[in-house]
Amino acid sequence: MTSTERPFLNRSLAEFGTTIFAEMSALAVRTGAINLGQGFPDTDGPEEIREAAVRALRDGRGNQYPPGPGVPELRTAIAAHQERRYGLAFDPDTEVLVTAGATEAIAAALLALLEPGDEVVALEPYYDSYAACIAMAGGRRVPVTLRPDGDAFRLDLDELRAAVTDRTRLLLVNTPHNPTGTVLTRAELAAVAELAVERDLLVVTDEVYEHLVFDGAEHLPLASFPGMRERTVTIGSAGKTFSFTGWKVGWVTAAPGLVTAVRSAKQYLTYVASGPFQYAVAEALALPESYFAAFRADMLAKRDLLAAGLAEAGFGVFRPTGTYFVTTDVRPLGESDGVAFCRALPERAGVVAIPNAVFYDHREEGAPFVRFAFCKRTGVLEEAVRRLKALAG
Ligand SMILES: *Cc1c(COP(=O)(O)O)cnc(C)c1O
Question: How confident is the model over 279-326, as pLDDT tens digits?
């Protein structure tokens, strides 16, 4: 085989050709459908935070390479946020690392912490970058499937325990969980923590939806559980909380040795990113509680609007207590294959959604489930619901 006959994409990435988001977004454009596929808001975050970014840019703050770990203002603001909300104290100089969004934090953590062949136990369905990053790091993913139970998806703790072997290096956790909207409870997190301590595992926990919890659910960081502070890499991001997903400001908080390891990988990925935006996000994290409460209330109203509309349109609806996604079951509509359903939906109803099956290794487990994003303007959601109701008739 000549070098141009050999496949260009290497073996570790071959199974991850193009993401479903590219296909579905192209479909949305071609058909003029409302795109409730990808999870980004259709309105920008707070005006004063946009202005803070403009000010930083004009004042020449962050226009050149910022410091590798992130600008001190932002690292201090991240530490203050963790302390204020969760009583978790992190040293801004040694225990906080700013990254190019949570996406880079996930990649850097896995590249830094895994040896080839190490097993990673992760909750399935996965956020779409997990499987690819585990593969790039040479790790082996071991899924533990969240299963429908009433109107939510739940973690089976016995299955989680059984998934851990002598080759397991880390648990990769995501709560609030995308795409199911599940928020792990205190008891579930305590069990995860106990398991991690007992089997001496590292934990990487993706908490980018920490501010989006509803119905009295509470976000509890895994790092706050006994024995977890020294073994947990916590990942956060400004994108979802402040509705600036294009700024790509994320972060890691962890013990010094873990931060140093993640930083070693991070420095050769992007080195640094998002200069002026780092200053703006430092201001965003210091916004009063009223901002976070209003953001949550706005998203809750949107959740209720879309969830009720989907139920009226005939979908089975799982009630998300976190994130800005609602997962549905298409079987009550007489369908069984979510992928085929989503491919046809733009033509049938003028709406784009994402089939959850693509987030599973056990595709059959996710086959009937379809995810809709509700982080869109009320009028857009109302129009989407109006269109989807045509499916019932
Ligand atoms: C959106 C998202 C990310 C990526 O966050 P960025 O800060 O935009 O890189 C990571 N994890 C989950 C679960 C997400 O939904």
Answer: 999 999 999 999 999 999 999 999 999 999 999 999 999 999 999 999
Domains of the chain: 11-45+290-390 (3.90.1150.10), 47-285 (3.40.640.10)
Answer yes or no: is pLDDT of 17 > 80: no
Q: What is the pTM of this model?
A: 0.97
Name the H helices within the chain: 20-31, 47-58, 72-86, 101-113, 128-136, 157-163, 186-198, 238-242, 256-266, 275-285, 289-312, 338-349, 363-366, 378-392
Residues listed for the chain: 393
Determine if ligand 1 sits within 6 Å of the CB of residue 325: no
What are the beta bridge partners of residue 235? 206, 252
265 CA → ligand 1 middle, Å: 19
* pLDDT for the residue numbered 172: 98
Number of Cβ atoms within 10 Å of the Cβ of 11: 8
- pLDDT 10s digits, 208-236: 999 999 999 999 999 999 999 999 999 99
Q: Ligand 1 centre from 145 Cα, in Å?
A: 20
Closest C-alpha residue for ligand 1 atom 8: 101
Q: What separation in Å is there between the alpha carbon of 348 and the centre of ligand 1?
A: 30
User: Which of 38, 103, 219, 299 to mutate to test ligand 1, by most ligand atoms within 8 A of the CB atom?
Assistant: 103
Per-residue pLDDT band for 83 (boundaries 50, 70, 90) equals very high
Q: Judge if the beta carbon of residue 239 lies within 6 A of ligand 1.
A: yes
Distance from the alpha carbon of residue 104 to the mean position of ligand 1, in angstroms = 9
